[in-house]
Write a structure and sequence with these properties.
This protein folds into 2 domains: about 90 residues, Roll (Ubiquitin-like (UB roll)); about 230 residues, NAD(P)-binding Rossmann-like Domain (Rossmann fold), CATH 3.40.50.720. About 30% of the residues lie in helices and about 20% in strands. The chain contains 13 helices and 13 strands. The strands form 2 sheets. An 8-stranded mixed beta sheet has the order 8-7-6-9-10-11-12-13, sandwiched between helices.
């Protein structure tokens, strides 16, 4: 019999820094006793002096807390997965229900209790509750991002539902921001959701983004993209950008003063009519989902301080070829907003800049 055991960070010093180990046993107690023979000290960390599971330890068999099974007498079968979740994982002060909700993240050594606390304290503004913003918001809320702002002036239409998965039939006619908030509240009551059912302009954006740590660009027009980029550069806010059309998508992460911004890649928008909109050319719904999830992944990595961000990289995706390419992009020293001698020092008229 082989049982996979997921070991939390505090106990990994007993397992040679292994986050996953193999064990065997007909039930939980026998499994722990057998593990203690190979990794001395585990048993006393899990069971107290009276032989009961310590009150600050949760044990899961697959997806179920053993407290709702047969406790340490819970029977095991070949292929089961047991997760050890300390209530003080990483020294954080998470509530018991939070430990259970986020247990599959907390057991990751790269997250732990400390990382989960970082997510719960994070503040993310999502611009656009459409094809990109919908999946991004879903997963950030599920992961436990503490505060999510939603900006969108549009109302839900029937043609949105093919890709904007946060909206339902009953939401047609509602403001997208309010529709999205309803779903996020149902997913995770830990999350504070603030809605802005307005269009971002040079007059209101700085006041809005100052309340957030980072910004996700899920917009669908060039004036908003350049506005958001410039506002983030001027305010020093990290920006997670993605764009989609037909079967294609692209994404990058912009950290002001540490790498290129959107204007470094595209100094000017294309002339009107040269690049069709999704309304004109179409979009495969799942492409929006893939790129939105890439954005949410980048946001989580940023707050956790783990992995390699798409800073200085442009990720290009084509669904028909199922191909990802990662291209190196450079900061433009002559960039109008983030260059050595910037010419843009305040927000401009973006409709005029984009010739709209």
């Amino acid at each position: 019999m082989s049982i996979k055991v997921r070991v939390p960070t505090p106990l990994q010093k007993l397992t040679g820094n292994q986050s996953e180990i193999d064990g065997d046993g007909k039930n939980i107690r026998e499994l722990i006793e057998n593990l203690d023979k190979k990794y001395p000290g585990i048993k006393e960390r899990i069971f107290d002096e009276t032989g009961n599971v310590r009150r600050f330890i949760n044990l899961f068999v697959n997806d179920t807390d053993i407290r709702f099974l047969q406790g340490d007498k819970t029977e095991l079968k070949d292929g089961d997965e047991v997760s050890i979740i300390p209530a003080i994982a990483g020294g954080s002060d998470l509530r018991e229900d939070q430990i259970e909700r986020y247990s599959r993240q907390i057991i990751l050594p790269e997250v732990g209790g400390i990382g989960q606390k970082k997510l719960l304290n994070a503040r993310v503004l999502i611009v656009g509750c459409g094809g990109l913003g919908s999946p991004c918001a879903y997963y950030l809320a599920a992961a436990g991002i503490g505060k999510i702002g939603l900006v969108d002036s549009d109302r839900v239409e029937l043609n949105n539902l093919q890709r904007q998965i946060i909206h339902f039939m009953k939401d047609i006619g509602k403001h997208k921001a309010e529709s999205a908030k309803e779903k996020l509240n149902l997913i995770n009551p830990d999350v504070e959701v603030i809605t802005y059912p307005i269009r971002l302009t040079s007059l209101n954006i700085m006041e809005i983004i100052k309340e957030y740590d980072v910004v996700v660009d899920g917009s669908d027009n060039f004036p908003t993209r350049y506005l958001v980029n410039d506002a983030c550069v001027l305010s020093g806010k990290p920006l997670f950008h993605a764009g989609i059309l037909k079967f294609d998508g692209q994404a990058t992460t912009i950290i002001p003063r540490e790498g290129p911004c959107y204007r470094c890649i595209f100094p000017e928008p294309p002339p009107p009519g040269t690049v069709p909109s999704c309304q004109e050319a179409g979009i495969l719904g799942v492409v929006a989902g893939i790129l939105g999830l890439i954005q949410s992944t980048e946001v989580l990595k940023f707050f956790l301080g783990k992995g390699e961000l798409l800073k200085g990289k442009l990720l290009v995706f084509n669904a028909l070829e199922m191909n990802f390419r990662k291209l190196n992009i450079q900061r433009n020293n002559n960039c109008a907003i983030c260059g050595d001698k910037p010419t843009i020092k305040e927000l401009i008229d973006y409709e005029q800049f984009c010739r709209i």
